[in-house]
């Protein structure tokens, strides 16, 4: 939909600002191509607005819900899945992986001697004294203590739940 059609639909629906509607009215009066498009869209608008919408009966929701209740409730999802399909997919992947590994091991030259030396890498020294001081460690332990007490309280409240006798 182009901008002119949107402008005409807004005019027909009565949406948009007053200035936009006035400008559209001016375009309809002055431009013959715009007026022809307006007449075409206006006839569509009148046709659509004159249609009577079918409304469902008052008991539609109740009837639908009753029909749904009559449907058989499926069991678990496990009963809906055919296990043969799962076994077939599993077998396909296992055979494929086994074949790929077999080809890989077949193509390896096992007679060649190789040596592998790990490259030396020295980790850079990190000065943690700026980050790990006694205050930060105390805050960490305090937060751990609070979390532990919260979890312990939850454990105790589950154990002491009141038992209701019927």
Shape annotation? extended
Query: Which structural class should the secondary elements be placed in?
Result: mainly alpha
How many β strands by DSSP? 0
Uncertain stretches of 5 or more adjacent residues: none
- Average pLDDT, to the nearest integer? 84
Distance between the termini: 68 Å
Order of helices and strands: HHHHHHH
Radius of gyration: 38 Å
Residues in helix, %: 55-70%
Provide structural commentary.
- There is one protein chain.
- With 166 residues, this protein is mostly helical.
- Among the domains are: 3-50, no CATH class; 77-106.
- Helices cover 66% and strands 0% of the residues.
- It has helices at 3-13, 18-30, 32-50, 60-70, 77-80, 83-107, 134-159.
- α1 (3-13) crosses α2, α1 packs across α3 (32-50) and α2 (18-30) packs across α3 (32-50).
Please render the helix and strand layout as text:
Blueprint: H1 3-13, H2 18-30, H3 32-50, H4 60-70, H5 77-80, H6 83-107, H7 134-159
Write a brief structural summary.
The chain is mainly alpha-helical and 166 residues long. Helices cover 66% and strands 0% of the residues.
Primary descriptors:
7 helices, mainly alpha
């Amino acid at each position: 939909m182009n901008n002119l059609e949107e402008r005409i639909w807004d005019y027909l629906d009565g949406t948009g600002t007053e200035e936009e509607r006035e400008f559209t009215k001016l375009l309809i009066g002055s431009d013959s191509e715009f007026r022809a498009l307006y007449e075409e869209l206006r006839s569509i608008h009148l046709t659509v607005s004159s249609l009577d919408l079918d409304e469902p009966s008052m008991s539609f929701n109740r009837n639908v819900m009753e029909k749904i209740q009559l449907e058989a409730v499926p069991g678990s999802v496990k009963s809906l899945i055919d296990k043969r399909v799962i076994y077939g997919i599993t077998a396909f992947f296992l055979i494929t992986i086994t074949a790929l590994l077999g080809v890989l091991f077949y193509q390896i030259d096992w007679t060649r001697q190789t040596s592998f030396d790990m490259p030396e890498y020295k980790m850079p020294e990190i000065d943690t004294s700026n980050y790990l001081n006694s205050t930060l460690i105390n805050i960490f332990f305090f937060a751990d203590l609070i979390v532990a007490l919260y979890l312990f309280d939850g454990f105790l409240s589950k154990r002491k739940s009141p038992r209701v006798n019927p």
